[in-house]
Write a structure and sequence with these properties.
alpha+beta, Alpha-Beta Plaits, four-stranded antiparallel sheet, 5 helices, 37% helix, 30% strand, globular
């Protein structure tokens, strides 16, 4: 199934299996997958302070506003703190989650390949 069609059929999908470059990166019931990420939007400094140390799947910013998708669900206490800080919390669509998860995997792979070993004389 192409990623641009996922939202159109998401209510029919019972299980999600995502294969990226021959590797299974997601295999779970659709309801479980829907709770694997959370979107947080608001003042960039406040958002950044909250997501520090968490796995960020996607980040966009415009001026002083940031929209961040983090891996994992939030506790009731975390939701209360974010709401009190004036941040918006929202679900991530199945399509967004799959696209952002595969993009995150690509970025992680790219970062790993950039850590090449330098040989004697400074050549790679």
């Amino acid at each position: 199934l192409s990623s641009h069609l996922i939202d159109e059929v998401s209510n029919l999908i019972e299980r999600v299996l995502v294969i990226d470059r021959g590797q299974i990166i997601m295999d779970a019931a659709t309801d479980d997958v829907r709770n694997q990420a959370t979107a947080i939007v608001g003042d960039a400094a406040t958002v950044d302070a909250f997501v520090a140390g968490r796995e960020v799947l996607h980040r966009e910013s415009l001026g002083r506003v940031a929209s961040v998708t983090i891996a994992g669900a939030l506790s009731a206490d975390e939701r209360s703190r974010l709401t009190a800080a004036g941040l918006d919390i929202g679900p991530v669509s199945l399509q967004q989650l799959i696209v952002r998860t595969t993009q995150h995997a690509d970025e992680t792979d790219a970062a790993a390949s950039d850590t090449r070993t330098t040989t004697k004389g400074g050549q790679r």
